[in-house]
User: What shape does this take?
Amino acid sequence: VTETVEGWPSTRAQVMRTALSVGVATGAYGVSFGALGVAAGLSVVQTCAMSVLLFTGGSQFALIGALAGSVIGDPAALGLDAAAPAAFLALLWPRLNSRPTWLTALTAALVAVLAVPFVPAGVPVLIAALVPAIAVLDRRRAA
Amino acid sequence: VTTWGAILATAAGCYLLKLAGLSVPQQVLEHPVMARISDLLPVALLAALAAVQTFSTGDSLVLDARVAGMAVAVVALLLRAPFLVVVGAAAATAALLRLIN
Assistant: This one.
């Protein structure tokens, strides 16, 4: 141990533990992505191409998931479709540390869900992405 | 062919978007309004993704085992469970409910 940065792992064991948990988490996400990709009608090669070209990470695991998915068939039976939103929620959780972030999160979630029946898949999230800009600019005008 | 076209077009779009982000001048990024917006952007995106993937299938709103999975995920997060436990508990809950039904 040479240098310690506030809040960062300092010992070799801590670094190993952190690295391992990030690796396992990314791997789990890769497996579920692969299974969901195949379930959505993509071929194994297409699923891997998406993982390699778009997400630029965890692609090896997407292959495992894609191969597993083409064997298992239905990832919903394994709850993999519940794993994805739970992963997003877990990533969101540590950021919910103030009133404005809570308000932003709840508004964005509500806006996106309400938009689902009216626009093509994927667009609800893009609409929700406008929430922070509107909120910040509106607050500034009111101030 | 159309699926491959969509994959490649999306990939190209993603790289262009990343490139565009890198070429934004520093002073624009440091502007307080931009800083505040880009602070809240991941919050909005993650919340929207989580909500849409919990409550919808295609273009219809549905309530199914995923909602129970998310409720368990919230409890796990309140108990300060690690990331993998949260995700695993949500998946296991949904899978178990579907097995019972």
